[in-house]
Design a protein that fits this description.
Shape: globular
Number of strands: 11
Structural class: alpha+beta
């Protein structure tokens, strides 16, 4: 068994609680049994591995050859088929790594086609053409985010629907990604919270560090008191509307479900229209998990949340509903394009239109 096979099999065992049978695996099996929740529903939902002829038949329509690492991955384990989402499973029950489940190869090809199709629609809206046709999705959040493998060099990127894709890959290879998460599982750096959602301890620490560095409203009030000689806040003046604040509008004729969710969140659930962007991917991931983890998954649909996960107002308490996956993919491109055109950086503010 070659190095690649051993590494992928190691990661598969550690993440997916797959029974390993190669020689010399006793120590590894003990680590797995001690550190993994072997009865997680997500492990039971995984499809049987595919053979080479099945993989070739499923991927025949792709404009590139499937990367060797991806092919080896699906020879070892298949993902969770859309057919498993029968209207009773929540997203959090399907996650293999925090916030993401494995696409079955059939669903990965279909998702690839949808993402490429969304690029072709970019000329008709303010959506940005962001999805590289050389990328192949393997892990999905169920809310428009994907871990993708570049078919040219095998590197792995986290493609988030409303965030610019980083210039550098997140992992040098799929093998490195799997191994990294496998080690986190066995070291206890991936845990379950009280709501049975798995999360990354490293990610949580990054968010806490960012929050500790932010200037709180209480701190600004203390500075204001000191600046005015202990007299407290200066008399408030009626502010004129800031017409320079960018306003985000979606083409509701193209995405009625998205617009209905935003309208209901604002008018019924009293969610804010003034939003503050965050570019911290750890926080965005955590916000998306908190908002969408309890949503029941259905084939052809994905979770849409408002306020958006890419804002400080997003996360727990957001209104999250299922919308057609094509609408969600298009919305992410429009939101990312809006951020770029209006130069809205981390901490930048804008308003959401809802009429």
């Amino acid at each position: 068994m070659g190095y690649l096979t051993v590494l992928v099999a190691f990661a598969s065992c550690a993440i997916f609680a797959v029974h390993c049978t190669w020689a010399g695996n006793k120590d590894l099996s003990q680590i797995i049994s001690k550190n993994l929740a072997r009865n997680r529903l997500s492990a039971k939902l995984l499809e049987s591995p595919l053979n080479e002829s099945a993989i070739d038949a499923i991927t025949d329509s792709l404009p590139f050859d499937l990367p060797k690492s991806v092919k080896q991955f699906y020879l070892t384990i298949n993902g969770i088929a859309d057919a498993s989402f029968n209207g009773t499973l929540t997203l959090k029950e399907t996650w293999i790594i925090p916030g993401y489940y494995i696409l079955s190869l059939q669903d990965a090809v279909e998702t690839y086609n949808q993402l490429v199709e969304s690029n072709k629609m970019a000329d008709d809206t303010e959506q940005e053409n962001r999805y590289n046709p050389d990328w192949f999705p393997v892990f999905a959040s169920g809310a428009g985010d994907y871990y993708i493998v570049d078919s040219k060099d095998g590197t792995v990127y986290l493609f988030m629907k409303d965030v610019d894709t980083p210039d550098k890959p997140d992992y040098a290879s799929l093998e490195d990604m799997l191994k990294d998460h496998a080690e986190d599982w066995s070291r206890g750096l991936i845990r379950e919270d009280k709501e049975n959602m798995i999360y990354s301890v490293r990610e949580k620490r990054q968010i806490e560090l960012e929050e500790s560095q932010e200037v709180s409203p209480e701190y600004r009030q203390k500075r204001r008191v000191a600046r005015h000689g202990g007299r407290g806040r200066r008399p408030t003046r009626r502010r004129r509307p800031n017409h320079r604040t960018p306003i985000l509008r979606f083409p509701c004729q193209l995405m009625p479900a998205i617009c209905n969710n935003i309208y209901t969140a604002i008018r019924v659930n009293r969610k804010p229209t003034s939003l503050t962007r965050t570019t911290n991917r750890s926080r965005i991931n955590a916000n998306r998990r908190a908002a969408c983890g309890h949503v029941v998954r259905r084939p052809g649909f994905s979770c849409d949340e408002y306020p958006f996960a890419s804002t400080l107002q997003g996360g727990r308490g957001s209104r999250a509903v299922l919308v057609p996956a094509r609408e969600n993919n298009r919305q992410g491109g429009i939101l990312a394009g809006f951020y770029r055109r209006n130069n809205i950086k981390n901490g930048g503010r804008y308003r959401q239109a809802y009429s």
